[in-house]
Amino acid sequence: MTYELVRPPFTQSFQEMAEGELNRYLEWFGGVLPERLNMLANAVRSAPSYEDWQPDGMPNSLNLLGQWFATQIAVRPRSKIEMRSIDAKFPIDVPGEELTDRTLSLAMDIGMYLSQVFLKNHPSLKWEQPLANKKFIDYGQPVLVAFKPGPFNPVRMVVTFAYGVVSHQRAGDGLRNIYETWSKLVA
Fold it and tell me: Mean per-residue pLDDT for 175-185?
């Protein structure tokens, strides 16, 4: 089975997008969500030992999904241009590796699925798109709201999880752990 990478029709950073573009991004995100979940399910089920995975929206489905994703995460070397760009913005040690496009695409799809698990099991949650402050980390991105500490960005959370797996700080069970931790914070 061939996995098709997600291709958002917007290439600018969220902070640089006009509000109309951000609104269209939210519409696009919601519109492709069912197709992307189907693509994710097919990719997972095509792997040996995961043929029976069911994307039923239940928390237990995150166990196998997280284990599968941990086996799919890959990195590539960062270019010198990428390294200089990050160095110029942040005075930190920059790792020489970056997640591959396929890994980032899977992270987006898994973030979409994770959002559906939250919405199915916590009916008080809803989608929102923060547009008040361009300095907000999730500005313009689809987030779930009604958590005590603030919005939950499922895609960003799964990307962070992937970096944790790469650095050996997380394992496949981390996806379910994210769900359990944030479920306790539903307002």
Answer: 97
The pair of structure tokens assigned to 157 is: 């959370």
Nearest to 107 by CA among 57, 51, 160: 160
CB-CB neighbours of 43 under 10 Å: 21
Q: Would you report the helix, strand and coil content of the chain in percent, each value rounded to 5? A: 50, 10, 40
pLDDT tens digits, one per residue of 121-136: 999 999 999 999 999 9
In Å, how far are 63, 65, 180 from 54, measured between CA atoms? 11, 9, 19
Q: From its phi and psi, is residue 76 left (phi > 0), alpha (psi between -120 and 50) or beta? A: beta
- The structure tokens listed for 92 are 């930190």
Structure tokens at 160: 């962070």
